[in-house]
Design goal:
The protein is α+β, with helices and mostly antiparallel strands and about 120 residues long. Helix content is about 15%, strand content about 30%.
Length: about 120
């Protein structure tokens, strides 16, 4: 008597779909005035909402801002320079991923004529 055994195909590892990047929105909560050069941009990314104080600072090239996150702890300010493709920021995001929410947010506001 012969027996027949079914062979199962080898399990293939399941492919994960890449995680969807949360939508980002930027706006200005408090506008600058003639008396006060500061403004307060807000950056929303998914469920995360952050507010910053921003003030223009002198720059030899492009437009520059000093941004400080409004939170309960003392934060170091970020220095953001807007110069098209050569924009800079000294935050960890730009250093690690070559993308920065501060540069992208202020660039979007500048293109919309809101700075």
């Amino acid at each position: 008597m012969s027996t027949v055994t079914a062979t199962r195909p080898a399990k293939q590892p399941r492919q994960r779909k890449p995680r969807a990047k949360p939508a980002r929105a930027v706006g200005i909560a408090v506008r600058p005035s003639d008396v006060n050069p500061f403004f307060v941009p807000r950056i929303a990314e998914g469920k995360k909402l952050d507010y910053y104080t921003a003030k223009p600072i002198p720059s030899d090239w492009g437009t520059a801002f000093e941004m400080t996150k409004l939170s309960s702890g003392q934060e170091e300010p970020y220095h953001v320079g807007l110069a098209g493709a050569d924009s800079t920021c000294d935050c960890k995001g730009l250093l690690r991923w070559q993308k920065c929410r501060h540069v992208e947010g202020l660039t979007a506001l500048a293109k919309a004529g809101r700075l």
